[in-house]
Amino acid sequence: MDHQVTLTEMLDARERRAQTQQKLLAENKAPIISFTMNIAGPIKTSPLIQKGFELGKQAITQQLDSLNISRLHCLEKNAPTGNEAIYQVDADPLLLKKITSSIEDDSPLGRLFDIDILTPTGHKIDRTELGLPPRLCLICSRPAKECARSRTHTIEQLQAKTTAILSQAIEDQDSSHAAALASRALLYEVCTTPKPGLVDRADNGSHKDMDIFTFMDSASTLWPYFQTCTRIGRQTCHAPAPHTFQKLRSPGRKAEQDMLTATKKVNTHKGAIFTMGILCAALGRLPREQWSHPDTILDQCAAMTKGLSASDFAGLTEENAVTTGQKLYLQYKITGIRGQMEEGLPSVRQAGLPVLKNGLAQGLTINDAGCAALLALITAATDTNIIARSSLSTQQEIAVQIKKLLQDNPFPDTQTLSRLNKEFIKKNISPGGSADLLAVCYLLYFLENENTDAKNKPTQPS
Fold first, then answer.
1. Please, what's the b/e burial string for 223-240 (b: 16 or more CB within 10 A of its CB; e: otherwise)?
2. How far apart, in Å, are the Cα atoms of 215 and each of 205, 251, 268, 436, 457?
3. Are 139 and 161 in contact (CB under 8 A)?
4. Which DSSP string do the residues of 363-394 spell out, in sequence order?
5. Do the Cβ atoms of 373 and 348 come closer than 8 Å?
6. Which tens digits make up the pLDDT trace of 178-193?
């Protein structure tokens, strides 16, 4: 149960904070940024408030870093009396007040931030010293001090508004972040080179109607779709998982239309719209702290798509089967990406992602590890794109061929991959389904290694 603090506890916390600030000022004559949350009522912290506090810290530190403002001291305290952060920095106090006031004023979440600036002498800079208007009320946008003094709004009203602001801000931040990583994964996939039979930085593989720029045109249109999918996941997280998937159908159709408009009717990412959309919705259904667990994400994908193959392929006949996937199901009972997703993408979980991570652990670039992961995926799942451009027997022969290649060398060099590319082009083969799964591997890797993957940027193949 959330701890309800007393007025005495709040006054004691304020006094301790002031003592800490004075001690820092005595030791080092540099201004201080003091950040707390403006939370009405006796409950001053909760998991939701903590997340808002983390976003506030992020906003402050990003501004300091962008201006190369060094932090001399950083102190943080998370107590029942509230979340506190103190930064002593080497910068002009008025500049700091201008920066932090913009953080407070420029977003709804900023209205919950209370950021004070103390000069080296201990003077607290007021907004009026910069000619800024007073802080506004959460509810009615009148000066906050007036509403507080007259108790215009009840504690319950202020708490409800605070919860709404925090929930919306966290949803916005999480959905934007998921969309950015999903788009990044698509760009990493197309830039991974050389990929046998696929578009990459070196050539167009087996494709005559698209190149790397076509893929970039397509990827650039899908960011809003990935954000929508994440929002849908968050907004339906308490409903049964299949309900979330059904909500993706309409946005998915629109995303396909946007893709075809951007590419002049070339299908670059139809498969990725399906797979990555589900991944983003799964992220939305999960709390942020679980995003670094690939198995948890993939289990959520399986739960969302349970029974999908049986539902989508029900009532199929030779007369009404239109798509390649429908025809393959009728002829060979191949469920394709639907079946893969229902099982939680075992090819990603057991082949693609482990190979990607193992390659990086051995010192390979993310490009070269990605090439090996693609080959592993070709052997681990039935790529219906290969079958559509050739035959089932050809797909099976290729899987056996690549499996033997990987047994001899799990991470083939560029020359080997280039020879395989020429062979695929000659046979007009393109493992597009495996490419979509490679993008999934990249997304899961980014999520698992948020703070370290920046070290492994794609480079020209060795």
1. bebbbbbbbbbbebeeee
2. 13, 20, 6, 12, 19
3. yes
4. T--HHHHHHHHHHHHHHHS--HHHHHHS-HHH
5. no
6. 999 999 999 999 999 9
CA distance 369 to 355: 7
* Nearest alpha-carbon partner for 48 in 206, 123, 140, 160: 160
**Cis peptide leading into residue 194 (ω within 30°):** yes
pTM of structure: 0.90
Q: Rounded to an integer, what distance in angstroms lies between the CA atom of residue 216 and that of residue 191? A: 10
89 forms beta bridges with 71
- The neighbouring-strand residues paired with 76 are 85
**Cα-trace Rg, the chain:** 27
pLDDT in tens, 25-66: 999 999 999 999 999 999 999 999 999 999 999 999 999 999
**Closest among 291, 62, 47 to 166, alpha carbons compared:** 47
| CA-closest candidate to residue 36, choices 98, 102, 104 | 104
